[in-house]
Every structure is written in C-alpha cells, then in structure tokens.
Design brief:
The complex is a heterodimer of chains A (about 950) and B (about 80). Chain A is α/β, with parallel strands linked by helices. Chain A contains 29 helices and 37 strands. The chains are: A alpha/beta (about 950), B mainly alpha (about 80).
Chain lengths: ~950, ~80
C-alpha cells in the first residue's frame, strides 16, 4: 500500500461542451472551453510550477510562479488565470520563465524559516517542492532583513495549528473558507509586508467563526495550517479510502496511516458525495476510536444491580443465547427481538435482521430510522413508490430554487450545506420553512428570499397552503401531471387544496406565518426554474410526519419538479447508514428491498436462501417494544449500536421498558446509557476496524474499509454471526463481501452490487441492477417507480400536545454541528471544546418574563418529566418557542419529550413538546437519581486473583 | 399520551382513521384496516380487536369499523 496522491490540476474543471485545441510544449491538446492553460498542461502531463493554485479553488493568480509564454502575446501571463484559446502555442519552460520563477522563489524563501528537517510538513510541503522544481540553490537577499520568522503559533484549535511564520500569503486558506466551506471566517489582515491570515477580527481560531471543517488546512501548501496529529506523529506512509461514519452525507476520506496508527483523515477528492470537502466531525473527530472508555472485553451479569463480570466471547454469547431461548420457551416466540444500527454497515444490519427473523423466528426488528425518517419511507412509497430521496447531491448545482423544510444542513449535514451555499452564492433562490432562524436563513453572502418561521407542529398546514396557492393561482405544471401522475387523484387533490380553509390567510391563525410570505414562497417555488426540496427531521418527527412528507411529494409533482437534475424531493438522512439500515430490512414489516413480510413469494425466496421458516406477521416497532415490555409480553432484546435510552423520547417510559426486560444484550463501543439496563455487553468496533458498506442519503453505496485490526478482537458482523450460531441458526460468512453477495441475490434493487463493482466505480446508487448496471443518480426519470405518481390528501390535524397555563411554551429539539446524535462518539473527542453541554435557547421576552438571564440554570419541565440545563438568550427562536439539543446524557433532554408519535409510523413527535421554563438551583431529582443509577450500573468487578 | 395499552392503541387507531378521514367513508375504513393489518404486531391487533369486541370505547366510527373487520390473529 502507498499514499494516495490526488492529481491536482491547478484549477477547476470546465463544464463547457465546446472543445478548444491548442499546443503546449509542442503537444496538441483539446480541452473544454474555459479551461485554464495550467489545467490543459496538466492534461498532457506537464505540471507547471504553482503555489496559490489548486483545483478545489478558482484561479487567483497571485504567486506568479505559474507563468508561461504564449506565441504572439506580450509578457508572461499566469497560466492559472489565462484560459485556453484555439490555436495558441504555449511554452511552459523557457530560460526567461526559469529565471522569473527562481526569482519569485528567492523572495518567498527569504522570508521563510529554513527548518525543513524539523518542520511538521517536511516531505508534504509544496513550497519545499517548488524550491526543488525551480532549481533554487541560493537566496541572493540573505535572511537578515525584516521577516516574519519570529511570529508565534495559534494553537487554540484542538485539531490544527496556525504557524504564522510559515505563511506565504497565497490566500488558499481564505479562498477555501469562502469557496468550498462558505463560512468566510478567514481574511488577510494588514497590507503589504504586514499581510497575514487572520481568523475573524484577528481572533484565535477557536473563538472565531471558523467551523473547523479543515478546508483551510487541506489547501495550505506549507506547514502554516497543519493537523496537530501530523505534528505529533509525523507524515503518513499509506492510505486507504473509506467512508465517514457520521452523518448521512457519506463523505469519502483517505485514512492516512503510519503502520496501524491513523495519522489523519483527508477528504477524498473523488468522493462523489463530498467532492473533496469535509466537516469537523469526519475530518477530525475520530479520537473516540482509541478512547479509554471503550470496552474491549465481553461482560455479563444476571441483574443490573450487580457489577459487570468480564468473560470470554464464548461465555457471553452462550449466556445470551441461552437466555433468549429460555425467554422464548417461557413467554413465547415473539417475546424477544432486536434493533439494528444505522451506524453499522449494511452487512451488519442485514445480519442482525436475519438473526431476528431466522434465529428468533419473529419479525421484532426495528432500527433508529423509526425515530427519524420512517415517515419518509412511508410517505414517499405511497406517492412515488420508493422509500428514498430522488437525487444525488450533485443535483443541487442545477437547482434554481431550493426549499428547505425542517432541516438545518449547515449543522446536521455540513458538507451538503456547503455545496448548497455555493449554489446559493451563484444565484439560486432560497426558501426556508423552520421555526428557528437557522444559519442558512442568513449567513455571509446568503439570505433566504422567504423564511416561513412557522409555529412548531403546523408543517402540514403550511405545505398544503403552498399547494393551495399553486393550484388556485394556476401555477400547476399540467402537462407534467397529465403525463406522469394519476389524473383523477390529482383532480381530487386539487379540489381539496383549493378549498378556502387551506389558504395562507386561513391557516395563518395556526401557523403564525403571514399569508403574503406563504404566497410569495409558493410562487417562487413554482415559477423559479428548477425547484428542489430538501427536508429533515423537522418534517418527520411530528404526529403528522408522514402527512407532511406526502404533502411535499405532492408539491414536487404539481410543479413538475421531479425526475430530472436540479429538482426532486430529498430527505437529509441523519445517521451515516440510516438509508442502508432501512434498505436492509430493518423494519418489522419489511424484508430487504422494502417488500412486505406477508408477501409469500418474497418470503419464500428468503426461506430458501436461509433454510428457515419465516413468520409472516409484522413485528413490534421500537415504541411498541417498550409498551410490550412494560406490559410483560416482551422480555428480551439485542441492541446493536444504538443508545435508545438517550435517543428515544419519554425517557422514563423507555427506562421502565428496559428495566422490565429479563435479558438485554447491548453491543456497542462504550457502556452507553442503554447498557445501564443490560445483562450482556458485547464490545463493538469502529468503522476504522472493519469492512463493509454504508448507504448515504442519496442512495449511494460506498465501501467502508478496515484500516486497523478491531481493538475488541472482532468486527460487529462476526459477533452477530457467533450469536446466531449459538442460537442454532447457522451463519458462516468469511467476509462482508459474501454478505453483500447474498443481499444482491435476494434484493431486486441491489442485484448489480458487488464489492468488485464498488472497487471499480468507487460507489453506486441503488437501484443498481440489470436495468441500471452502474446505478441510478436521479430517480423517477420518465416515470415513477409505482407507475403514475399518486397525489395524497393532506388534512392538517393539530397535535394533541397542547400548550396551556401550566406548559405555555413549545420545546423543539435538534442538533449542533460539532456533536453527533447522542454524542457517544463526539463527546469523546475534542469537539467538546465547542459544545460541552446542552443548553436551552429561549427568546429574550420569554426569558425576561421569567427572570432568566444568560447562563442561568433553568428547569425545563413537561408533562413527561423535567431536567435542568443552562439558558442561552437568543432571538433565533420565536417568542413562545424554546430549543435544545440531546447530545449529553447529563441533560437527558428526552426525559422531557413525550410519546406522541406519527400516525403512520410511530415516529416520535420530538419537535413539539409543551413545556414550562423556570429558574433552577441545579439538577432535577430525575437527573440525580439517574446519575446514581448510572454510576452503580457501570461498575466492573475486578478480576479475581489467580 | 397514556401508557395504558388499551387507551394507547385506541388513540393510535383513531390517529390512523383521522389521517384517512378525507376519503369516502368505505375507502377510509378499508385504508385504516389495511394500515393496521400491515403495520401492527399481532399482540397489538389482538388487543384492539378484543377492545372493539367489548364495545370499542373511544374508537372513532371509522376506526371501530376498521378494527371490527380485521382478520383474526394467527397464533405464533
């Protein structure tokens, strides 16, 4: 193995279809019009010296190293900023150019520390390389003059250093922050000789607007901005391409290694989801993999009041299997079940559901998508016939109007957020439907044309009102609807939405959004060109989550915004493999490929392959499991890689359900909150330690590649296989590739997927089969999967979670950039520097009415429970609305949320809870009791002396 | 929402019926019944069926009619 060196063409690719032919150093080359001479030269293998140019950024033309000569033209133009032209003859290496370049390099080096041997970028420095390339052997000016070599370092950022003395003011970092990330946190302060890179107003990186995406570090040609891991460990010697295990964007990374030590994660330019970009989590927050809290040995205990006993894998597996068998014998076959993990690979989730269906003999399997995007699965399958987003991420580059509903892409899906912001800076228009003023509403060079700051819980009213305007103002794309959709359904729907009760004026009393804003947004979406909808959990996590998804699908059909690039309906999936876990049959009513368990032919195919009889009845969904456990009919559960106690709503009810189980098996990296109630703990392994695949929000299946041995001894799929075998359900896979082969053999949308194909193409988007052998970037081209698109009636039904005198405020919950889900991973990294605790955002007027000041401890109380946390006074939330995150178990935000849920899927209504907020002196009794239980439950017995 | 299982199942059945209530009555009943049959575990269906058989207190008319027509739950 070796390092993977991306070819840097110096300037971005031109998308022109017109070719231009020129001669470079005697070689003829044809390239798209608009290509730079620098890039054209690289196409024929001539690497023109450069420092300020890189193909991730637009040409800048400042370093004057990439000069060329063009016959018939005066001077020596910069090849990065000079476009090709038909018939020109270019020379990249002449005596004059050599002298000029050497002179430029002399000036750079005269003001640069000559500590190459001890520099952290030694061997990975473009300045060093260019000095060699131009043949620099001496610096005529000496090193005694005024210089910057005395400047110190900014080490405030936990992940990278800023060594000011090594800056050559090439502007690459500033441009990367602007063009790639879109944060505009960096600038060049000072003028002339005083010019230096400056975060914000000459602030330390940590306290500036910098979001630590790493784009500046990646673009820096010297050691000025360098990973601290590189400084500490040294340069890597080999790299492996793998897929990030954080959000549903699915960024491809090069894991750069020295031996089996991970030196750094570098975003992979050929990654089709991220196109070489990253965020603070994927780029830097991998330290949890080696955190001291990891549990590396299996453990068992007969009661949760006892300390854990470390045992061998064989003992733990045998104990778990015997307990599951005992429970089934005593309480019945359907008294046990399990939960697959959206953080684990496709192959692992497939095996867990296979174990439950084949080994337990029932369908009590569910996954965390239950509590996030299950309404997406239901809503899109009803309207379009498939349970997934319609586009690839590249599609946003063709969008003219982007409608974001209940999503916060700059925090939750940051790399897609950056790609979106880039398109908005190019001129696309933005509509945001969200109770909060999220960053995307207004940030540097971006401002939403419309922000519909609706009252939480009124999504259906707003989206149906948008449809009302489109229908009543004659903005329907009738040709599209007649050709592609069921016309009778459409007519019924059009009459339904046209009713006056759905008008923006009529619903304003519920939504609190001025009717004119709704009308303006509807007109813009329907008439502004390619209209794309992106949505998140602010849509799904409601009692009418599925209805809103269908209302969104209706909008796209009515305006013809489906079935081509630049448009579509795009759920932004939360976890790295939440799409995959759904695809792999993790829902209790569906086998892999979204086929209902009652379908005899489908079941027969699986029965033949697995050699078992399958139950034809749907199993319990996660909330139903807790209910059944409390009721006494559900007694055993296998949970792989999910922390349901922290992530699921109404914590007290969840804990009562878990406490009622006679056998809870938790497989995880850490003793998470759920493990407080477990009887068997099976150590999990990280994405760095195993092979497999993840499927991202654009249906893209990508390889996860093992870069180091599992610290716990086994990959997660191997542990599941051991448990299955102990239950008497034979599994003997030698490698995850064999599991994927079985998935492909049984799943029509995966028949063309194999590890060989993924290695060859990098990734594929399902459906990938005979009809689409290289996958399907955009769905529903020419026709919907279900045939004709189906319009659904979407009546607004107010939630039963009501505010009143006791609970006058509405709580809505969400996520923050630096933390991920329950925080199990990110809390065990330096990301806590940005978000050490969950806080409550409250509007100044609500705070003032309650005597609450910034930073005060406050009690947040609902009908379900209460917790205490610090208050942050913020106008991001409207009066009457408060907001918090759920990343920290100390807060247990979900002790406050209720078990109201979506009518179709039981997806919890996290986004609407009636609460009261009051000043507090400290933790609530629940927090104190839980802290005590947690401490006791995590005791591990000392090994007995030999 | 109540954690009492009968009350909770009634609430869930009514939610489903409300979602389909814009359709004609018979279609709404069939859609509600199909949804419950497709997504509810047998023990949940058995409980709601028993509740409906005992009078169906709290069930909306569409939900009650839908549950009354559910096919019998097979033993595991």
């Amino acid at each position: 193995m070796s390092l993977i060196s991306d070819i840097d063409y110096g300037t971005p690719v031109s998308k022109s279809e017109k070719l231009v032919t020129l001669t470079i150093d005697g070689m003829q080359v044809s390239v798209p019009e608009g290509t730079s001479i620098m890039r054209a030269a690289m196409e024929v293998g001539n690497k023109i010296p450069k420092l300020c140019a890189t193909d991730m950024l637009d040409a800048f033309g400042s370093c004057r190293l990439c000069l060329v000569e063009i016959e018939g033209r005066n001077g020596t133009p910069a090849s990065c900023t000079t476009p090709v032209a038909d018939g020109i003859v270019v020379k990249t290496q002449t005596e004059r150019l050599k002298q000029l370049r050497k002179g430029v390099m002399e000036l750079y080096i005269s003001d640069h520390p000559l500590d190459c041997l001890t520099c952290s970028a030694n061997g990975d420095c473009e300045l060093q390389e260019m000095a060699g390339v131009v043949g620099l052997r001496d610096v005529r000016y000496g090193y005694e003059g005024e210089n910057h070599t005395h400047l110190g370092k900014d080490e405030s950022n936990p992940y990278f250093t800023y060594e000011k003395s090594k800056c050559i003011v090439c502007n690459r970092c500033v441009r990367a922050c602007e063009e790639v990330q879109g944060t505009f946190a960096l600038t060049i302060s000072g003028r002339g000789f005083d010019s230096r890179v400056s975060p914000g107003m000459n602030e330390p990186f940590l306290t500036s607007e910098c979001v630590s995406c790493g784009a500046c570090v990646q673009s820096c040609p010297t050691a000025t901005l360098n990973e601290k891991s590189m400084v500490e460990i040294g340069t890597p010697e080999h790299a492996v391409v793998t897929t990030c295990a954080y959000c549903g964007v699915g960024c491809a990374f090069k894991a750069e290694m020295r031996g089996d030590e991970l030196v750094r994660m570098v975003p992979y330019k050929d990654g089709k989801a991220n196109r070489g970009h990253s965020c603070v989590k994927g780029r830097f927050a991998y330290g949890y993999a080696t955190h001291q809290d990891r549990i590396l040995k299996p453990m068992i205990r007969s009661s949760i009041s006892e300390p854990w006993q470390e045992v061998t894998y064989e003992e733990a597996i045998q104990y778990a299997a015997s307990e599951f068998k005992r429970i089934q014998e005593k309480y019945g076959k359907r008294a046990v079940g399990g939960i697959t993990s959206s953080r684990c690979t496709n192959e692992e989730t497939y095996l867990v559901q296979k174990l439950i269906r084949g080994g337990f003999g029932n369908n009590n399997v569910d996954t965390c998508a239950r509590v996030c995007h299950s309404p997406t699965g239901y809503g899109l399958s009803q309207t379009y016939g498939t349970s997934a987003g319609t586009q690839d991420f590249d599609s946003v580059e063709q969008s003219d109007v982007v409608l974001i509903i209940g999503a916060n892409p700059t925090d939750g899906h940051p790399v897609f957020g950056s790609r979106l912001k880039k398109r908005l800076r190019e001129g696309a228009k933005l509509i945001v439907v969200d109770p909060r003023r999220t960053d995307i509403v207004r940030s540097p060079h971006i401002e939403a044309a419309f922000h519909l700051a609706l009252k939480p819980g009124t999504n259906v009213a707003i989206v149906t009102a948008l449809a009302h305007v489109i229908v009543t103002e004659g903005l329907v794309n009738e040709a599209f609807v007649r050709e592609r959709c069921d016309w009778e359904d459409f007519q019924e729907w059009a009459a339904f939405v046209a009713d006056e009760r759905h008008s923006p004026e009529a619903v304003e009393k519920y939504t609190k959004v001025p009717a004119e804003l709704v009308r303006g947004a509807a007109r813009l979406y329907a008439t502004g060109g390619n209209g794309a909808i992106y949505y998140g959990l602010g849509v799904t996590e409601h009692s009418q989550g599925s209805t809103t998804v269908m209302a969104i699908a209706n909008l796209a059909m009515a305006t013809g915004n489906i079935g081509r690039e630049g448009v579509g309906v795009n759920p932004l999936r939360g976890q790295n493999n939440v799409q995959g876990s759904c695809d792999m049959g993790s829902f209790p009513h569906e086998l892999p490929g979204y086929r209902h368990i009652s379908d005899d032919a489908t079941r027969a195919a699986f029965e033949a392959m697995w050699g078992v009889h399958l139950d034809d009845e749907p199993g319990l969904r996660i909330p139903n499991m807790f209910d059944a456990a409390v009721e006494g009919t559900y007694k055993g559960m296998y949970v792989q890689g999910e922390d349901i106690l922290q992530s699921d709503p109404d914590t007290k009810h969840v804990s009562a359900g878990l406490a009622a189980l006679e056998c809870l098996v938790v497989q995880d990296l850490f003793l998470n909150e759920t493990a407080n109630y477990a009887h068997v703990f099976l150590p999990g392994c990280t994405f760095l330690e195993k092979d497999g695949t993840f499927t991202n929000a654009e249906r893209r299946i990508q390889r996860v590649r093992k870069v180091m041995a599992p610290k716990n001894g086994y990959a997660d799929w191997e542990v599941t296989q051991m448990l299955a075998n102990a239950l008497g359900f034979k599994m003997d896979y030698a490698h995850p590739g064999a599991i994927m082969d079985e998935i492909a053999a049984l799943t029509p949308s995966f028949t063309g997927v194999s590890y060989a194909k993924l290695d060859e193409l990098g990734s594929v988007q399902w459906p990938c089969n005979e009809k689409a052998p290289t996958g399907t970037p955009v769905m529903h081209i020419g026709g919907f999967v279900r045939g004709k698109g189906k319009f659904m009636l979407t009546e607004y039904v107010p939630t039963d979670e009501k505010t009143g005198p006791r609970f006058p405020l509405l709580l809505t919950t969400g996520r923050i950039l630096s933390q991920y889900n329950v925080g199990a991973q990110t809390r065990r990294t330096a990301n806590v520097a940005w978000h050490p605790e969950d806080v409550l955002e409250i509007h100044p007027s609500d705070a003032e009415n309650r005597g609450i000041h910034e930073g005060d401890y406050v009690k947040l109380e609902s009908r379900s429970g209460s917790t205490s946390l610090k208050a942050v006074i913020s106008e991001r939330v409207a009066p009457g609305v408060v907001y918090t995150t759920f990343h920290h178990p100390v807060t247990q935000a979900n002790v406050v949320t209720t078990d109201f849920s979506d009518w179709a899927t039981n997806c919890p209504e996290y986004k609407v809870t009636a609460v009261q907020v009051s000043r507090s002196n400290g933790p609530t009794p629940w927090q104190e009791e839980y802290e005590d239980l947690s401490r006791k439950s995590r005791r591990i017995a000392a090994e007995a002396a030999e | 929402m109540s954690h009492n299982s009968d009350e909770k199942l009634v609430y869930m059945a009514n939610q489903i019926a409300t979602a389909f209530a814009q359709q004609k009555h018979d279609a709404a009943v069939v859609a509600t019944r199909t949804h419950i049959a497709k997504f509810w575990d047998p023990r949940m269906r058995a409980k709601i069926t028993a509740h409906a058989a005992a009078g169906g207190a709290g069930l909306s008319p569409i939900a009650k009619e839908a549950v009354d027509g559910l096919p019998p739950v097979k033993a595991a």
